[in-house]
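QUALITY CONTROL LOG
STEP: pairwise intake check
CHECKER ROLE: data steward
CRITERIA: each record must contain a sequence immediately followed by its structure tokens, with no blank fields

ENTRY 1 OF 2
RESULT FIELD BELOW
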Amino acid sequence: MGKTDTEMNKLILSYQIAPSERPRIERGRVSLLTPNLGPAIDVGLAVRRRSAVSSITMSLEPAIDVDALSKSFGKIVAVDRISFVVSAGTTIGLLGGNGAGKTTTIAMLLGLLTPDSGSIRLLGHDIRGDRFRALARLNFSSPYVELPHRLSVHENLNVFAHLYGVSRPAERIAELAHDLQFETLLDRRTGTLSAGQKTRVSLAKALINSPELLLLDEPTASLDPDTADWVRGYLETLRVRHGVTILLASHNMAEVERLCDSVLMMRGGRIVDRGTSDELIMRYGRDDLEGVFLAIARRDPGGAA
């Protein structure tokens, strides 16, 4: 049997912190156990050891370089020999219907699933042998992966600040709370927040280590139009000001058209087409990207193959 979307989201949750476990912070580290990962790795150690020379060298590498990547669950092929390259400082959309392979691809990029074959390089690091150096320079956010409900917003962000070795965690948390407009929520338990408030806090968690690469899964799902528009504007500003590379998995086609430099279209575990939104719209003879998405998802013979 293949993994359902719910099971995959639970797996991605293991990249976060199990809600039932309260971490202990000692001497700038976080000590905790998770049932899936065992002792937590001090990702911040990799941050602190990264030299300026290596940072300059890595900046010349593509942010993401995936080659012939495959993953199966029993007889079900979830990802089938996909290859793509994402240049640093760009935003790429990863689109496809349910079961297309998007979540499995993201889980492999995060090192949570081991590919059956193929290779992944993130910011110049081979994910198989150098996973934690890569993780120190990236982050992930999804509204379907919640932070521990019993901890306050500040406590949750403080945990991740220590995991990533942020030098001045209190200042960084205050900065993000101001930028993302949730300063009044810092002392509230995370479980009491609305969907929009949780999205802002989750985004702050994903930005706590000033990542060079940001993986986003449906970042504006369940948000009202005004809040969703604000989040998109923030992501645009983030890329322009800080050069962050973003991989965006979304079902909101207008969002993808607005944010993404290029788009990868997945179906049945394969990348079946790619290009800018305008190129795909013209190629399929549709009015917008939603029409392209439907043509591919439904295997419309009138569209491009």
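ENTRY 2 OF 2
RESULT FIELD BELOW
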Amino acid sequence: MQIVILGVRLAILCLIAIIIRIASGIVVAGAVLGDGENAAAAPGPETSAAAGPTPFEQIMLLVVVVGVAMLEAIALAPWIYRARTRMLPLIPVVAAVIFGVLTLQPMIEATYFGVAHGETIRLMTYMGVAVSVLLAPVAVIALRWRRRGADQGDLLRDAQTPRRWRALAIKIGVVSLVYAVVYIAFGYVVAWRTPEIRAYYGGGESAELRPFVDHMLNLIRHHPSLLLLQVGRGVLWSLMALAIARTMRRGALETGIAVGLVFGILMNAQLLLPNDAMPSDVRIIHLLETAPSNFLIGLLAGALFATKQTRPTQETP
């Protein structure tokens, strides 16, 4: 019976997530088309000859959008369904994590590599805020409604002594450094070894395929800002993992898997969506690179920050 109820809750969340994704996509597409019409003062022969997407392409895009929305709902479900924080304080935490994973982290990297610029960043921010604000309360209500046994709890109640603050800071530092190493390792092994990625980001000497040690030394010498950026992004991953762990209050393995699903699927499912800034082969390679690496970081961070509740609670489905 519990599985049936959970299935119904998840189906409702998937349906609403699909509606939110489609609606936000229509709004952003309308903004892009509006800007394009304003920019085109007098369309030339090439502009007028450009053909829009065919009906088949539109149907396939809709299928991909539906699939992405369902993946996002599935990624959030284990965390929210098993959370021990009550609904009202849980909603802003879920919204912040969704925005951080879905929008902020990709936007930081896209800005660094020059893939996203002013107008693109503005649209990404608007869409990210809209999806986060709309999806968070819906997800919490769909998965937590009438589930008893949750406690109010303070997100940082386990870190109120100086000793625990120091331990927490050490954990954040460990996750941040490990994330930078995993990012570089997966980037080299999975992405940088492919000519498509080197052609997309490279040029000149930087596009050469070097041995891993030489690659690392080249990054340290010529691109130290990239390493510092990834450490900083590792801090953001740590803080989001901490928020998830504090709201769940479950065991290390369960918390790690829940955080890994949020980090691995929620951020990378959108790579399935076509966009003008990144060719399809580059998107798929990045998906194969970042989905497993983010899941591993989430697994580690969730296990480190897990704080299992000792007081037994009676929960209902």
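INTAKE CHECK: passed for both entries
DESCRIPTIVE NOTE, ENTRY 2: The CA atoms of residues 162 and 168 lie 10 Å apart.
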